[in-house]
Design brief:
The complex is a heterotrimer of chains A (about 425), B (about 1000) and C (about 100). Chain B has about 1000 residues and is an alpha+beta fold. Chain B has 21 helices and 51 strands. Classes of the chains: A alpha/beta (about 425), B alpha+beta (about 1000), C alpha+beta (about 100).
């Protein structure tokens, strides 16, 4: 069923009796060519591109809970391609290009909204670092602007320019960055995958891998054994848990990242603003809520909830940056469990087990990568070779010394 | 409508207030909601999507409809629930999300278009043409969406934070909470009783029930008096416990002066972090409506709310009311309002066997199937026994049963369990440790049950803490059974609202079902059910029940609803308003800060420190003039710079040398007493992360320095090595960064200057050569440490004195060095000098560089192990061919810009041709042009080559010549003079 | 969160800095023939359990003790804490 304004109009006239399920609820088949473990954004995107772009069939996505129940449904919806390193920037720019055509690709309005992102700087040293990054963005064709204080003030006059602990000197802007409706992204890929024959199987938890002489044969699940030629795991937040069932230890720790939304307000903040010195970033959803966040809580956690000190810290950052939000009220706070990797960058790679592939380690930035991650993982599963923009995301980069460490923080996940 | 009789309002005083500019009067004890109701105002807001006219649904913090902008100017507070605002004199409120007026709202056209605006319609359209989304559709949606408006001004009020500790925290001051607090308080335990209301009593305040045959208020007053007399209980009214965190920590907000016209210097709200050994959740229950066609008109409200307005506030929305109920509670409303001479048009009970509790018309087995009245209810359509009739009434009380307030119990992701007789979710077994539910929150709905369960919960908590607590004598109370019929909505073709604020109707849930958005989270996210400012307090269970009906499964099979913090929305200011503006983070000041300030220095942040950036002199109009002058003074005479901010760590013990040998990649054990050595530290992953000096003052005593930025990190890592890796070594550490003021004295005349302050100490090159160190006295007996080290490449020293003498020392040096040209210099000149000398600093040692890259590869000793040594040999690090080089513009007037990327001449500007970047750049007065340092692919083999520095970000590029990374005295003769 | 410091009693977790997996106490032998592989494992790989986890906390705003805290990563319940120095010394004794 094709979605369009006309279709909505026609259905309205006949009482909305013609709408059909966005996807089927199939029972799992005994075997598939491709099994994607994890029905989050990355898993659903992977299945979609495998079927649609790479023309593969006999594909299933196994989801422990409901589709989109992972971090795709609990993030702050930011999309951007403002990275520094050669291992990252082309990948995220590829993702941005996919975002830009996503609605038409999926025939589903995921509300990709390129309202821009501004990363603020406060010292000459930070400006120099942003200049290096902005130039890297220019090399990748991502576009960037270095804004001076007065240009910034004209754009976002409500920041605290005059009485700040960290006086704002300017910002690095990417106009093409913005937000997308996170659930809509998951649903769009799910519907797209389903329409290309992908079986989306909910309430199906993987409980083990069946391995045979170094090759994966299938997975044990809460709904029985399912055989497969290739198994791709995309369960960021739980990567260590799932891969441990295949006997693997990963360069990953699980941490909790909190996010926050206020009550709905009339338009206040145009794009995304990032205040690194205060560990705070913010945007405003189309519905009107201010959506914001800060640092991870900092300790290993699988709890999907955080603690009060970070709540206070994030709110302080917000108040320091834009004191006019003070009388808005925090409506909801939640936590997501994220795969914090040892260099702050993800892994999209085959494993030492034949037929078993891993997509994980997305830290707090997996959402923006959803399209490219799915595309690159599908590319790897379908062709056996890494996608050209994802070549740096090999798992052996740690042993070989080719880390992709944007922050230069080293092998301590809670510093990335 | 005038006031009814009775009520807990003070009729002796009148409070003036305004709503949408119209003036009204109320009394102390009123809320904004009750006062508006008493003034005959039913229309208070508009819904989010369809802009439907709305009035009060509820009486408390669950209110979805009556949201207003409270106060004005910078104190404007959007989305404020009229039900929770305590009335004060001069209160100003405005309706919101309507234009031009509440009575006539242009966007009510959305209601006519509602056939198109179904759940999730926006996912299916607005995709063509592509460019229209950002330009047309989305801006229109954003303008229409949102509720109230921020003032866009800084919040002028003051906020506070505090910490409290107790044995028992009682959350909720209703029947159960009071009984719990009484039980625990009498046992001598430290108790905190918190309630969001401004009066204790909870639901008792809204009921006519008696305790021991007397008015409930008598019992409450007696308890309040007893609490007042006990030193071990703190009663916190107007305090909402909003979240449960780990290990018994609860977040709470106290409204300190929200109920006053002006804060008058007092804080507005206080954030409390309460650490409680145990807690009782006595948060009561929230009534839910029954959905039926057009059930959202002003005047249609929860039956319990209608009763509360009448009993507590002597207010009623109409002279004639009706009640629609599926349980006994609705009958209480009819009985209580009849007792206040309100006309009861009918009570419609879905239960065929329902019995009347008073003298009113009862329609059993009936349903309300529709309503009329554009801006306020006029009549309802009742269907019963196959007949339909319209009954005139100005208000309808609806009761669909009560949902225990399990919110806090599910904050740790524990799922509540469905209770079939109560038709509600109750706290399960997996709530937060130490949190015990009681009273209505635990499903004990009768007053007697609630009293006993509160007392027992407290007794259990005390028992777990080893405190003997006996159950108090509890008053005799109502013991009625609660029965409820499982009716959640009235079937029909028209829209029946489930989530009032977000305009989610039964039809929307049906659509979600048809489109297979059936898991409860899909239902919520697709329809926005429960996502409004009330977070589904009155709608979640109903929505779930409708979905259960559609899928043919039971409610618990369909899903559960759990809640995230906060229980009710929390002002951002109180969470983060304490430390903002200039106080957002602490500032550290150097010992010479005030001196530098007096010299007119401009400061810059380095870490948390404020450091002098440069010292402008009269006549200097550009910072470059000051910096050039300061740098020249160091190269030509003598300069003084406060370097206290560099981390200083004292390392003592017999194994001090061995310990440092394992931390620095270069050899340190062989360092002789009285000597200093430059040292480089690697992370265990092999990358360079900090550099500094190590001075050996004695065999068993070294002082090491770190960079300013990494002082804390290096100390932490050293303690890790000492305590966790090599506990067998005899070594002790302490950070002395703050204990010693350290001043760099640099330049060819530095020796002459220092000679004027040392007490008989031989500073000659022979006695105190380059990289020497000593403990000595200066200025007639002041203890000091002297290091002959140089960051600038000149003859230079760093002298340390106890921090409190730093200010005096720099004054003395300036005074004694006047004839030598002694000049203070700041971090800018420091940077110029170190770039000229080619010293790596923060921009080079950025955590991504190896020792090889910064030209210190030979420092990594192959003769011994040290942190990071093994991993520095990995192929990726050892094979990285980028090297630190110097860069000079081919055109002497050309620019060198940090952050530019480096390319071979003629190469395209792409990632795969990118050969490095400029890390640091400055104007060098010594060289007479700009210079820079940068990492360049094979840089050490490309000296003399001309490359391109590209800065497409700012539309610039420059041709630069690759030179050695030493622009001054490459042989290092000067610093050894 | 609260951390039961073995010397100082219950302390707010905000006084501490978190490092992670307490296996970092077992630094490999740098002279072993497979030292590079052993260090890669040591530096980068983690069990990352959902459940009981032994982990390092540094009392940075306090007495500067490194602690080994045993904590459940699912419930956040703290099951115990000891001085890392004691843990390191007992390990040294055990291996000898």
């Amino acid at each position: 069923m094709k979605f369009s304004g006309f279709r909505v109009f026609a259905e309205a006239l006949k009482g909305h009796t013609g709408w059909r399920p966005l996807w089927r609820n199939p029972d799992p088949k005994p075997s598939y060519d491709y099994l994607i473990v994890g029905g989050g954004g990355h898993g659903l995107a992977t299945a979609y591109y495998l079927a649609k772009t790479f023309g593969r069939s006999r594909i299933a996505v196994l989801e422990k809970g409901w589709l989109g129940s992972g971090n795709v449904g609990r993030n702050t919806t930011i999309i951007r391609s403002n990275y520094l390193l050669a291992g990252n920037e082309p990948f995220y720019e590829f993702s941005m290009k996919l975002w830009e055509g996503l609605e038409q690709e999926l025939n589903f309005n995921a509300m990709v909204s390129q309202r821009g992102i501004i990363n603020l700087f406060h010292t000459d040293a930070q400006r120099d670092a942003f200049r290096r990054r902005g130039n890297a963005m220019m090399l990748a064709g991502a576009g960037a602007r270095l804004l001076g204080r007065e240009e910034l003030r004209a754009m976002v006059p409500f920041l605290n320019y005059d009485n700040a602990r960290f006086p704002i000197k300017g910002g690095l802007m990417q106009a093409r960055a913005g937000t997308a409706r996170h659930d809509g992204v998951a649903w769009g890929y799910a519907r797209g995958g389903d329409s290309h024959g992908v079986d989306l199987i909910q309430n199906c938890e993987v409980t083990g891998f069946r391995l045979d002489r170094g090759k994966v044969r299938g997975v044990e699940t809460s709904r029985g054994y399912i055989a497969a030629d290739k198994v791709g795991v995309a369960v960021a937040g739980s990567s260590s848990r799932v891969m441990a069932m295949a006997g693997m230890r990963l360069p990953i720790e699980s941490h909790v990242l909190q996010a926050f939304v206020t009550e709905g307000l009339k338009p206040t903040i145009p794009g995304v603003i990032t205040f690194g010195a205060g560990h705070f970033y913010i945007s405003q959803s189309d519905k009107g809520g201010l959506v914001f966040g800060g640092d991870i809580d900092g300790y290993n956690s699988y709890a999907q909830r955080g603690n009060l000190p970070v709540v206070e810290d994030v709110a302080e950052g917000g108040m320091a940056l834009m004191p006019m939000i003070g009388r808005a009220r925090l409506l909801r706070m939640w936590g997501g469990v994220v795969d914090m990797s040892m260099d702050g960058s993800p892994i999209i790679d085959r494993t030492h087990i034949d037929g078993l592939y891993l997509n994980g380690g997305w830290c707090y930035g997996g959402f923006k990568a959803t399209p490219a991650s799915g595309y690159a993982f599908a590319h790897l599963l379908a062709t056996g070779a890494p996608h050209e923009t994802a070549r740096a995301y090999r798992i052996d980069r740690f042993a070989r010394g080719h880390v992709v460490d944007e922050r230069g923080a080293g092998a301590q996940p809670n510093l990335h | 409508m005038t006031r009814l009789s009775g009520g807990l309002i003070d009729r002796s005083q009148t409070l003036n207030f305004s709503f949408d500019g119209k003036r009204y009067q109320g009394n102390p004890g009123d809320t904004l909601a009750s006062a508006l109701l008493a003034n005959g105002v039913r229309l208070m807001g508009r819904s989010f999507k369809y802009h439907r006219p709305r009035g009060l649904l509820s009486v408390g913090s669950e209110e979805p409809n009556a949201l207003v902008e409270l106060r004005s100017g910078a104190r404007r507070e959007p989305n404020t629930r009229a039900t929770t605002v305590e009335l004060f004199d001069g209160l100003e409120a405005r309706s919101q999300n309507r234009w031009p007026s509440l009575g006539f709202d242009a966007l009510a056209v959305n209601d006519l278009l509602s056939p198109f605006f179904t759940a999730g319609f926006y996912y299916k359209t607005f995709m063509w043409p592509k460019a229209f989304w950002e330009k047309l559709y989305e801006p229109a949606i954003r303008r229409a969406a949102g509720l109230g408006r921020l003032s866009m001004q800084a919040d002028p009020d003051v906020y506070d934070k505090g910490f409290l500790h107790c044995d028992l925290l009682v959350i909720g001051g209703g029947v159960a909470g009071l009984a719990a607090a009484l039980t625990a308080a009498r046992s001598g335990a430290r108790v905190i009783l918190a309630d969001e209301d401004f009066r204790l009593g909870g639901r008792l305040l809204s009921e006519t029930r008696t305790l021991d045959g007397a008015q409930a208020s008598d019992w409450i007053s007696a308890l309040e008096a007893e609490f007042e007399s006990l030193p071990n209980i703190r009663v916190m009214r107007r305090t909402t416990v909003f979240g449960v965190y780990d290990h018994g920590i609860y977040g709470a907000v106290e409204g300190v002066s929200d109920h006053l016209p002006e804060a008058n210097g007092r804080v507005r709200q206080t954030l409390w972090r309460i650490t409680a050994k145990r807690a009782v959740l006595a948060a009561g229950a929230t009534e839910r409506p029954i959905a039926f066609a057009d059930n959202d008109r002003p005047g249609i409200m929860l039956a319990g709310a209608m009763r509360a307005y009448a009993n507590r506030w002597a207010a009623c929305p109409s002279e004639t009311i009706a009640v629609f109920t599926n349980n006994d509670d609705g009958h209480r409303t009819a009985r209580d309002l009849a007792a206040k001479d309100v006309k009861i048009a009918a009570v419609i009970d879905v239960r065929p066997d329902a019995k009347a509790r008073g003298d009113y018309r009862l329609i059993t087995g009936g349903m309300v199937a529709g309503s009329r009245g554009r801006l306020g209810l006029k009549s309802i359509e009742v269907q019963a026994n196959g007949r339909s009739e319209w009954i005139e009434c100005g208000a309808l009380g609806v009761s669909g049963g009560w949902n225990p307030n399990v919110h806090l119990f599910s904050h740790h992701r524990g799922r509540p369990v469905w209770n079939e007789p109560l038709q509600a979710f109750l706290p399960g077994e997996n709530g937060p440790l130490g949190l015990i539910p009681a009273g209505a929150a635990a499903g004990h709905f009768s007053t007697g049950d609630a009293l006993r369960s509160g007392a027992r919960a407290a007794q259990r908590a005390m028992g777990e803490l080893g405190i003997a607590a006996s159950l108090p004598d509890l008053p005799r109370a109502e013991e009625a059974d609660y029965t409820v019929a499982p009716v959640f909505h009235v079937p029909g073709k028209k829209r029946a609202w489930v989530d009032f604020q977000n305009d989610v109707t039964v039809k929307d849930i049906k659509l979600a079902h048809a489109e297979n958005m059936r898991p409860v989270e899909h239902l919520k996210r697709y329809t926005t059910l429960g996502m409004a400012t009330d977070q589904g307090k009155t709608s979640n269970v109903t929505g779930l029940a409708v979905m259960a009906e559609l899928t043919g499964r039971s409610i618990p099979e369909t899903g559960t609803t759990i809640f995230r913090p906060p229980y009710t929305p929390v002002t951002l200011s109180v969470l983060g308003g304490g430390d903002t503006g200039r106080h957002f983070r602490p500032r550290r000041l150097t010992p010479t800060h005030h001196w530098a300030e007096a010299q007119g220095a401009v400061f810059v942040e380095v870490g948390q420190w404020m450091r002098a950036q440069y010292f402008p002199r009269a006549g200097e109009t550009h910072w470059r003039q000051s910096v050039d002058r300061e740098a020249r003074a160091v190269r030509g005479a003598v300069g003084l710079c406060d370097v206290t901010t560099l981390g200083k760590i004292d390392v003592q013990g017999a194994d001090a040398g061995e310990f440092l040998n394992r931390l620095y990649c270069n050899m340190m054990a062989t360092l002789k007493v009285g000597r200093v050595r430059y040292g480089l530290m690697l992370r265990e992953d092999g990358f360079a992360y900090d550099d500094g000096t190590c001075a050996r003052l004695a065999e068993d005593h070294c002082v090491v320095t770190t960079t300013t930025a990494n002082a804390g990190l290096v100390y932490r890592n050293m303690e890790f090595a000492r305590q966790c890796l090599w506990p067998e070594l005899d070594v002790q550490l302490i950070s002395t960064t703050n204990a010693w003021a350290q001043i760099a004295v640099a330049g060819p005349k530095s020796r002459a200057l220092l000679a004027r302050i040392v007490d008989g100490f031989d500073l000659s090159n022979e006695a105190f050569p380059f990289m020497a160190c000593a403990e000595l006295t200066v200025c007639d007996g002041l203890r000091a440490r002297l290091f002959r080290i140089s960051f600038s490449g000149e003859l230079a020293y760093e002298i340390a004195v106890p921090a409190r003498y730093g200010h005096a020392l720099i004054e003395r040096l300036m005074e004694l060095g006047a004839d030598l040209g002694a000049t203070p210099y700041g971090t800018e000149a420091l940077g110029v000098l170190r770039i000229e000398k080619g010293h790596a600093a923060g921009p080079e040692l950025n955590g991504q560089a190896t020792a090889l890259m910064v030209g210190l590869g030979s420092m990594v000793s192959q003769k011994k192990d040290s942190v990071g040594a093994v991993m520095s040999r990995r192929e990726g690090l050892a094979g990285d061919r980028r090297r630190l080089v110097g860069l000079r513009p081919v055109d002497p007037a050309g620019k060198v810009v940090s952050g530019s990327h480096l390319f071979a001449e003629g190469a395209p500007w792409k990632f795969d041709t990118d050969q490095g970047w400029i890390t640091s750049a400055c104007y060098s007065p010594h060289v007479g042009s700009m210079i820079g340092l940068g990492f360049l692919e094979n840089g050490d083999e490309r000296l003399g080559e001309v490359i391109v520095a590209a800065n497409p970000l700012e539309g610039e590029s420059a041709r630069l010549r690759v030179v050695p990374a030493h622009f001054v005295d490459p042989e290092g003769a000067r610093l050894r003079e | 969160m609260l951390i039961p410091h073995p010397l100082l009693g219950l302390r707010d977790a905000q006084e501490f800095t978190y490092l992670g997996d307490a296996r970092l106490i077992d630094r490999p032998d740098p002279s072993a023939p497979d030292a590079e592989a052993a260090f890669c494992d040591y530096v980068f790989l983690r069990d990352n359990p959902a459940g009981v986890h032994r982990e390092f906390w540094f009392h940075e705003q306090g007495d500067r003790s490194w602690l080994v805290v045993t904590r459940d990563t699912v419930t956040h319940e703290v099951l115990g804490a000891e001085l890392a120095r004691d843990a390191a010394l007992s390990r040294t004794r055990c291996s000898k």
